[in-house]
Amino acid sequence: MAVTIRGKGVISGIAVGKIMLAGQNLDGYLVNYQPGSVDEEKNKAEGALTAVADILSESVERMQKNEDQKEQAAIMEAHRMMVQDPALHDSIMNKIEELKSAPQSVLKAAEEQAAMFESMEDEYFAARAVDLRDVGKRIAKYILGVKEPEIGDEKVILCGQEVEPSVIAGMPTEQIAGVLLGAGSTTAHAVIIAKARAIPTVVGLGEKLEAISDGDHVIVDGEQGEIVINPNEAERASYNEKIQKQKELAAHYAQLKDLEAVTTDGVKVELMANIGSHMDVDNALTYGAQGVGLFRSEFVFMGREDIPNEEDQFKAYKEAIEKCKGGLCVIRTMDIGGDKPLPYLNIPKEENPFLGFRAVRISLKRRDLFLPQLKAILRAGVFGKAAIMVPMVINVAEFKKVKEFIEEAKLELEHEGKAYSNSVQVGIMVETPAAAVMTPVLAKYVDFFSIGTNDLVQYTLACDRGNASISDLYNHFNPAVLTLIQRTITSARENGIWAGMCGEMASDPNAAVLLLGMGISELSMSAPSIPRVKEKIRSISSIKAKEILADVMKMEDGDEIKAYLSKVL
Amino acid sequence: MTEATIMIENKTGIHARPASIFVQTATKFKSKVQIKAKGKTVDAKSILMIMSMGLVKGTEMTILADGPDEAEAVKALTDLVASKFGEE
Asked: Is the distance from CB of B81 to CB of B33 less than 8 angstroms?
């Protein structure tokens, strides 16, 4: 029997692949490391130094054969010499006497050397600190058994205590078969990206991850949260059966792909995809998405040291817009705050980042950040149908300021002689109770509303969506939430603009029926949810949806509504 | 003990690439090799120690070797520095 471990399955589907450990953060491994005697630790360090030097020598030899890689080869050669350096060696051995742990000592010794480089005046030498930290980490990883990720042709299962969002975002969809996280709630950013790409994902594995080594072959069951490590023939066969069923369901959904999301009495709803990167669009279209209802532009900003420039952003947005093939592409401007600090934003640690300096509140104060983003979107708009969506708005004044920025961006583009689109729609994400309440006024200024339920539910119910002990309170069918949503949709209709939804609620087929009854015109969700929502919409009439909505709006309790919908639908 | 003093004249000084060539050359010899510059003396077979000296263009340094092949070591290393490591 192969070893099986269990966590929480958050994105269903079965995946088979080879483990690629992506633990860039070594803290989790260091805590679980069991050191031996001082002599044993010294031996381990010696062994690691020799082995890492050998590995580096091999890559240097390989790279030197290739003209393009000569530069890289020289750097790797310098790294090899650092690994074999007598001074570093002595420092590590001294540290082991004191710290008793080989990996800790390696990191400490490298850090001390790095700090010394950093203190040097010459910029070039100061920059070598990065090389030393890299070298230290490499040796420590060797001792801890965390291997360097190598991307081959085989499909990989990304695995780590935490996987940085930029790691997943930076890899092509077809390369990642599954994701396993030690930590992680269902709303972790790595999970959100995985969801957009329908990658089977299991979180909350904690220490159980130790059972998995780099290069293991595993089966991941994203529904049951089960991971079979190095499965035998019988286990493979039983999972092959499940994969078969999964394929049948996918085939059934595939038949729906080109059908419209239309009720039995002819009311149409546009179904769009939420994406985290321009690389997600192709995958989204295979599920029948008619465009992109939410492009989270944060990932353009994350995993880097400086503000992404207009040109880099323009390229990413242009690609996403072009790939929508004439469908609308709604780009949300930067939605970052103290919970995901970026080095170049310099936001001090806040006690309550979700109610703090974030999203549009930052954009309006940081012209250096906001103008390049707006200019990039306006320019990319030339290549298709684009919209700008502003997050976290609470009043009309903020939106007016955004419009002023957009005018300024256009003026600059004109001066620079760059082509831009004048038909980019500008709307807001309705995700604060204040915005929802004020939609009758806001509707006079905006081109559209898109309801962001993840935050709207959280703010309306004063209920942290990541907190497991109050997860029973977090319910998008709560009458307070439904009332705000209905108000938003009604305000839009009365003012002749469109209203959509881009939160998780949109992927709940039963919720889709209520929203249909309220008169919503667009639903945006993680692409794999599109077929089942479409199937539900095609099975019902708009009259029936209105009747159900009327019943529901008389009810007093969210759980009652949820139960009622499950019964009648 | 053999020693020789030389001025560093290549544009970028002894940064990563020249430092690695320097160390590679020094380790070929059995003798103990050191360099003395800016009032400090360090092991010439340690890239970290050499890089930590911040040997930029125009620094004067002394190469000291002690052992069976000390003369050859000092000559090889002074030649290397004089050749500007093949740079400008």
From this structure: no
Query: Around Cβ A244, how many Cβ atoms within 10 Å?
Result: 10
Look-up of token digits 């490298």: A110
CATH 3.30.9.100 fits A3-22+149-248, yes or no: no
Contact residues on chain B for A81, CB-CB shorter than 8 A: 19-20, 23-24, 47
C-alpha A286 chain-centroid distance = 20
- Judged by CB atoms closer than 8 Å, whether chains meet at A78 and B54 is answered as no
> What is the Cα–Cα distance from A294 to A272, expressed in whole angstroms?
8
HSE toward the beta carbon, residue B34, CA cutoff 13 A: 12
pLDDT tens digits, one per residue of A508-524: 999 999 999 999 999 99
CATH number where B46 lies: 3.30.1340.10
* Contact predicate A52/A103, CB 8 Å: no
ipTM beyond cut 0.85:
no
Q: Which CATH number fits domain A257-455+498-568: 1.10.390.10, 3.90.1150.10, 3.20.20.60, 1.10.760.10?
A: 3.20.20.60
Q: Which of A86, A121, A128 sits opposite B51 (nearest CB)?
A: A128
Range(s) of the domain holding residue B45: 2-86
What's the CATH class of domain A35-144?
mainly alpha
**DSSP for A201-213, written as a single string:** EEE--GGGGGG--
CA dist., res. B85 & res. A448, Å (int):
64
Q: Please tell me which residue in A79, A159, A189, A278 is annotated as part of the active site.
A: A189
In total, the C-beta contacts within 8 angstroms joining chain A to chain B are 53
Give the pTM: 0.63
**Tokens matching residue B67:** 């052992």
What is the C-alpha to C-alpha distance for residues A126 and A400, in angstroms, rounded to an integer?
A: 46
Helix (H, G, I), strand (E, B) or coil at A178: strand
Percent of chain A with pLDDT over 90: 55
Q: Is the dihedral of CA A433, A434, A439, A442 positive or negative?
A: negative
- Dist CA A132 CA A125 (whole Å): 11
Q: Angle between the A102-118 and A38-64 helix axes, to the nearest 10 degrees?
A: 60
Annotation says B15 is catalytic: yes
pLDDT 10s digits, B33-62: 999 998 889 999 998 888 888 888 888 999
* Lateral strand order in the sheet of A176-181: A3-6, A226-229, A217-221, A14-21, A156-160, A176-181, A201-203, A8-11
Count structural domains, chain B.
1
Q: Judge whether residue A166 has pLDDT over 60.
A: no
List beta partners, residue A11.
A201
Catalytic residue among B3, B15, B43, B75: B15
